[in-house]
Structure formats: structure tokens, C-alpha cells
Amino acid sequence: MKKAILILLFIVHCSLFTVHCNAQVPNGSYEGHITYSLGELAIIVNFNAINDSLKATIDIPLQGARKIELKNVKFTDPNIYFELPAGPGLAKFDGKVMKDSIVGSFTQGAVVGTFKLLKTKAEDTLTKQKLPYKEEAVTFASDGNTLAGTLSIPEGTGKHPAIIMISGSGANNRDEEIYGFKLFKIIADHLSRYGIAVLRYDKRGVGESKGKSVSESTTMDFAGDVEKAVQYLKTRNDIDTTKIGLFGHSEGGVIAPIVASRNKDIDFIILMAGPAVKADEVLNEQKRLIMQLAGSSKEEINKAIQMNKDVFNATRTGKGMDKIKKQMKDEVKAKFVNDSSKNKQTDAELDAAIDAQLKRYESVWWKYFIDFDPKPYLEKVNCPVLALFGELDVQVPAKQSEQPMRDALKKAGNKDVTINIIPTANHLFQEAKTGNIDEYAMLKHEFAPGFLIQISEWTRRVCKLTN
After folding, report:
1. Phi, psi at residue 288, to the nearest 5°?
2. Strands (E), 120-170
3. pLDDT digits (tens, 9 = 90+) for 8-32
4. What is the DSSP string of 302-321?
5. Range 125-278+372-462 has CATH code 3.40.50.1820
6. Cα 51 to Cα 14: distance, rounded to the nearest angstrom
7. Beta strands in 381-433 (DSSP E)
8. Is 87 helix (H, G, I), strand (E, B) or coil?
9. Residue 200 φ/ψ region, left for φ over 0, alpha for ψ in the -120 to 50 degree band, beta for the rest
10. Burial group, residue 406, by CB count within 10 angstroms (0-12, 13-18, 19+)
11. What's the whole-number mean pLDDT along residues 356-367?
12. At 87, is the pLDDT very low, low, confident or very high (cuts 50, 70, 90)?
């Protein structure tokens, strides 16, 4: 039986229900997020209207849950309701269907919030056309794991320059698909049309890749996977092994310099929102900017950042998590002080929710990542570097990392460095309004103007491609 995790992070067991629908019934994929007291959670709800019945499933990308069947789906134009059983806390969605969106309220035990979904494109346009390049399914081994991916190979005979795509933190697939936006697939398509082969793969334990989970692995483990990808490309007769580069997004933007610093056969690297300061500093600034956009007071922001620091310290020392749990629980309960439904069961639900939240801080990945400093690796990178930041990025803020990036590469004696900030771009390099995370699902599945062509032109220059 499939399993998923929702706001309170309880294991769920779901069954499929159908209802009668009318002509206005929602159909297809809707992407968005739930907003609640502890933050936000991305979801994708897929509706399937067949004759007089409506079926629905939910994906929770952050938790690796896919196609979980929903219960008690009811649609009476314009109202829609559906449920996700989640242990003792039944998750209830009660909303209204508009032209291209669904908005409404969300409840799960003591947790209340809102949800918003936006209808996605009916089909991926890249699957509707004949591609001017080949795509090949490939696998390679790394540290006991089997990694599966796609190699895009440009038209024409001979050997091609190649780029290996390195995704950011989390359980990402080969397309680094976020809210239905397939970042790496679009980038691979663009580069392949410009004569550059691209290898992208599912992270270990994700999609068709087998082995350890992402949470059981460290940033250094992922760097080892990239090195195995390089070795794989060197076995191919259609790849120019003197022109192999790396493309890293977010955490991938610190992994690329690690690999380049210890492998002289990396010809170039492209960093897309790659941090240049310690991870804990990035996380604190991320918290500050997101809360600032939400209208939080200076006092609230300072309190939240102190909570971050307490979590970091507790992770490092193994002490203090009980105090943090109590503080989190008190803050959440305070939001429902007038809720007459509070009882012992609600307290149990809150405990389970916060325990699951804190469990993240016990993961192998988290314990390693919070103290990771990319600076020593950047200071050893001598190959050409293109580093791009989003002007409105709140996850890896440009102002925090741009100058440290320049300073570290200058110390390395690197003579071929291009660092640019893309105007109005967010962390996914979409053209954004505020850059806040809650915009990601609502923006077009396309990159900000100039982003793709800047990558391809720079890559063709360093690879000396002229045709």
C-alpha cells in the first residue's frame, strides 16, 4: 500500500472514491501549496473526470509521496471537498473552483490553514514535438547505489561537449521538477539544441535510482555520485572527454565546486544560485527574508532566527531538542487558544507533528549540511566559472553570496569568472514579483528572459564551439 505524509507528518492509508460531476468539474493537474502555522507544503492534486465519476490523487513532492488516492471527493459547482486520512488527524480540503484555480481552507486536527491550487498545462510541450537530438536512458553505479538518468545527445557525428546536472537539496528527480516546473529538462533541451550533451539523473533513492535515501546521505556523498557520472561519460565514444562540465543548482551549486576542486578533468562549472557562505548563515538569512515578505515584525524575525540557532546548536551537541519541542508546541497551541475542539487527542497530534518536524534535524544530511562551508572548495577552483544569482531569490540571496563568490574565486587565481544577477528572478530563476516561495507554483513554467541564452552562449565559448 502506498504511503504519504502530510502536515502533521502522520503515515496515511488512502482509498479511492468517486462522485457524480457536472460540466464544470475540475479535470487534470493542479499545483500549489498549503499554508499553515508551521510553514508551507507543496502539493499537486490530480483530478480525473471519467463519465459521471471523479477520481483524485495527491502528490507531496517534498516527502516523496506520489499519486496517493483521496477520499470523499465531492463537487457541487463551484464547491469542492476532499479528504486525506492521516492517522488520527484527518486532512480536510474545502474550497471553491474558479476558472484556473482552486482556493479554500485546510484542517488537520488542531492545524488550520489555507490551500491554493493552480491548473497546470495539459501537456509538457517538449513531449509534443520531434526533438532535434537523441535521448538515451542510462544507469551508472556509485557507492553501492544505482543511479538512473537521461543523456541528451546533440545531432551530428563526432564527440560532443557534455554537462552533468546536479540538483539542489531534497528528493529531486532527474528533471529537478518543482511544482511541475521541470527545470533541468528545459535546460537540457536548450543546451542539446546548441550542441552540448546533457546528463541528468534521479538522486539516489528517487525515481528509478536505487539505494540510500537522500536523508541518509551527505553533500559529500552526492559529490561522489557526480564523480561517478563523470567516469561514466568518459566511457562513451560520443562525448568529448576534454570538455566535461558541471551545472549545479542550489546545494548542487556547492557540490560542483567540490568536484571541480579535486578533479582536474572538469573543464568548467555553471552555478545556479550556488551559496558561497556557510549553510547555517544562508538558512538564517533565508528565514529573515521570507518572514520579512510575510510582514512579520522585527521581534518575530529575531525570535525565529534565534530558534534556528538553537536548532543548529542542538543538532551539533545532541542536547536541547526537548526545550525546542516545548517552545514549538507552545507557539502552535497559542494560535488555537480559542479553539473549543482542543483536547488530549489534539495534544497528541501536536506532539506527533512537532516530533516529525524535529526528526528532520536528526537526519544524516541535515547534520552534515548545516556546518558545510563552500569557501575552501571555491578557493581551489581554477576552471572557467559562470555563477548566476536571482535578484529576488530568498533561498540563496544574491547579496549574501555574490561578493564572497568573487573573493573566493579571486583567491583561487581563477582568470575566467563570470558572475551575473538575473533581474526579477527567484530561486528557480522564474520571473517573479517578490521572490517568495509561495509564488513558485503560481508562476509560468519558464525561465526569466536571458537566462537560458546566457548559459548556452557562455558554454559554447568555453567549449570553443563555432558551428
Report:
1. -60, -45
2. 133-142, 145-154, 160-166
3. 443 333 333 333 333 378 888 888 7
4. HHHHHHHHHHHHHHHHS--H
5. yes
6. 23
7. 385-390, 417-422
8. coil
9. beta
10. middle
11. 84
12. low
Every domain of the chain with CATH number 3.40.50.1820 lies at: 125-278+372-462
Name the one residue in this structure whose C-alpha cell is 542536547: 319
pLDDT value at position 39? Answer: 67
78 or 243: which carries more pLDDT confidence?
243
Cell numbers 508551521 correspond to 38
Distance in angstroms (rounded) separating the CA atoms of residues 408 and 229: 26
Give the three cell numbers for residue 76. 457541487
Higher pLDDT, 337 or 458: 458
Cα–Cα distance measured from residue 387 to residue 408, given in angstroms and rounded to the nearest whole number: 12
**Type of residue at 252:** G
411 and 380 Cβ atoms separated by less than 8 Å: no
Pairing assessment for the beta strands 145-154 and 268-272 based on DSSP bridges: unpaired
pLDDT at 340 over 90: no
Question: Which residue ranges does the chain devote to CATH 2.40.128.120?
Answer: 28-119
- β-pair partners for 11: 5
Classify residue 422 as exposed, middle or buried by CB count within 10 Å of its CB (0-12, 13-18, 19+).
buried
Q: Is 405 helix (H, G, I), strand (E, B) or coil?
A: helix
What's the rounded Cα separation, in Å, for the pair 302 and 244? 44
Q: What is the pLDDT of residue 180?
A: 83
Backbone φ/ψ region at 65: left (φ over 0), alpha (ψ -120 to 50), beta: beta
Domain 28-119: give its CATH architecture. Answer: Beta Barrel (2.40)
pLDDT at 458: 96
Mean pLDDT of 392-412: 98
Whether the bond into 78 is cis, omega within 30 of 0: yes
pLDDT band at 121 (very low <50, low <70, confident <90, very high): low
Closest of 426, 422, 455, 456 to residue 439, by C-alpha: 426
- At 167-226, the pLDDT tens digits run 999 999 999 998 889 999 999 999 999 999 999 999 999 999 999 999 999 999 999 999
